[in-house]
Amino acid sequence: MADDGCFAHSPTLPPAPWHRAEDPPRCAASESPPRPRR
User: Fold this and answer.
1) CA geometry: angle at 20 spanning 15 and 24, to 5°?
2) What secondary structure does DSSP assign to 8-24, as a single string?
């Protein structure tokens, strides 16, 4: 699940405690299309 490191932003999981609501989401992949896995 943490392959792309976006697991913290999953709609099913609660917001990570280490992620501040004030700071913008680090995971740009959440809005961007999934990158091809190498």
Assistant:
1) 95
2) GG-TTSPPPTTS-SSSP
